[in-house]
Amino acid sequence: MIPNYLIDVRLDELPVVDKDVIVIGAGIAGLFTAIKASEQGSVLMITKKSLMDSNTRYAQGGIAAVISEDDSPAYHREDTLIAGAGLCDRDAVEALVHEGPDGVNDLIRMGTQFDRENGEFALTKEGAHSQRRILHANGDATGYEIVRALSEKAMAMDGIDVWDDHFVIDLVTQDGECCGAIVQKPDGSRLFVRGKATILCSGGTGQLYRYTTNPDVATGDGVAMAYRAGAYIRDMEFLQFHPTSLCYPGAPRFLISEAVRGEGAYLRNIKGERFMDRYHEQLELAPRDVVARAIVSEMEETKSTFVYLDITHESEEMVKHRFPTIYEYCLQYGLDLTTDWIPVAPAMHYTMGGVKTDLNGETNIKRLFACGEVSSTGVHGANRLASNSLSEAIVFGRRIVDRIAGLPPLSFTPSIHYEAERNGVPIQAVVERRLKLQKVMVRYVGLRRSGEGLARGFEELKRQLPIFQSVLTKREEYEFANLLTCALLTTEGALGREESRGAHAREDFPERDDKHWRKHTVLHREYGATEERIHDV
């Protein structure tokens, strides 16, 4: 059993810091929500590394919003629902497609500079979108530009305090209300931060896998701490593997944006043959899960570790202008996007599931909110539509801030005394344990799954549970405990879902089964696994 708290807690012995709003994590969700919330009161942003370290920073493609005259919310809704494979929450999608453009205007007011052509926004198209609706910045550096603008804005605001290099260990809850969090400072000392609202913006679970486009900080901390606190965790089996990350000796797994295929790139196997016509009528622009599994099939068939991405038939000028970051990055490793085929393979990219929220971003625990990749708002369903993640963060960030405005201050001082049966033995070899966990996830809970493999993976993961009886003191130990929690939740969700849908593919249940499985998997620390039917037709 995973305990309520990772550490022994005696709240009355900890120093207390009071703020109106506590934002855990940076990225677009944390920064945007903190800036908006600071218009109403004092905000504390806590990040375990720095404001510039988040998944948003690496987002290349852009942000999806209905801007063009030819586009409409109805088209955007339809594309999102199709990608989500029957599991999207219609109301959440409505909010996204109607409120996205206002959110984009907020970003522009906060200093984000999107690319323009002839005075108009330069809109591009990505996989599974029916229209050009992706705004981008500096070609393929959209995330970096958004984080740059929002970080500068946040740092300049009097109402926002930023704590870099601080680690949030646990949420503090009493009688179904969240009162704040226990935070470890860089020197190892701890304190209790108390607030009328706590917002998780801590990102996804990319580090569950050895190969990921996510930064080192994506260890699922928010999902794990919310689970320990008693929040509902939904749809964790739906993990998106990006089909094309650079796969080259000596180079990290660098994301090669969907937009490269959107602008006409071909996929070729090791023999140089285009192969997507054997898998989907949309060829290279099929949904991500289809493309990723097609690539894995080709790799297995040709006994290779990668396939090629080929955009050499497009003009050199267009490639360099549209993808300057990707072009420069590949060049560092002797690969020229304009003349070479680029070796790519799938890598873990995005967590569709997470902490279940309502349409105002609030969880089942009062005063606890979740925004961005850590949350499960219902927008993404079983598979996220490209570039909807940045829009989701701003749309629900705005909604959270509106909801917080109506919250009364905390009416009580929490008094928590929690001590678990811990054996006093420090945790050994965290780095090796983390690698072992990642190998289990790649082998059994990757792009293709089976009941037998998932069950074996689940048993192997459960052997690591005794670490919760150890005394944990360091950041990497907390991160490992959080990764293990998320790994167990993901595997349990995948084992329970006996069908293939969206990003979840079971070889023993290859068909989508709407009759039995058009529902969400919901996991709770005390109530275990439950299901949530989808009511609309």
UniProtKB/TrEMBL annotation:
Query: By its UniProt entry, which InterPro entries does this protein fall under?
Result: FAD-dep_OxRdtase_2_FAD-bd, FAD/NAD-bd_sf, Fum_R/Succ_DH_flav-like_C_sf, Fum_Rdtase/Succ_DH_flav-like_C, NadB, Succ_DH/fumarate_Rdtase_cat_sf
* Cofactor needs: FAD
Q: Does the keyword Cytoplasm apply?
A: no
Which catalytic reaction applies to this protein?
Answer: L-aspartate + O2 = iminosuccinate + H2O2
Gene Ontology terms for molecular function: L-aspartate oxidase activity
Q: Which UniProt keywords apply?
A: FAD, Flavoprotein, Oxidoreductase, Pyridine nucleotide biosynthesis
Its function, per the record, reads: Catalyzes the oxidation of L-aspartate to iminoaspartate.
Protein name (database record): L-aspartate oxidase
The reply to whether tRNA-binding figures as a keyword in the UniProt entry is no
What is the E.C. number? 1.4.3.16
Q: Where is the Fumarate reductase/succinate dehydrogenase flavoprotein-like C-terminal domain?
A: 434-528
The compartments listed are: Cytoplasm
Lineage, top ranks: Bacteria, Bacillati, Bacillota, Bacilli, Bacillales
Q: Which Pfam families match?
A: FAD_binding_2, Succ_DH_flav_C
FAD-dependent oxidoreductase 2 FAD-binding domain location: 20-390
Q: Give the matching NCBIfam families.
A: nadB, PRK07512.1
Family assignment from sequence similarity: Belongs to the FAD-dependent oxidoreductase 2 family. NadB subfamily.
What main location does UniProt list?
cytoplasm
Question: Under which pathway is this protein filed?
Answer: Cofactor biosynthesis; NAD(+) biosynthesis; iminoaspartate from L-aspartate (oxidase route): step 1/1
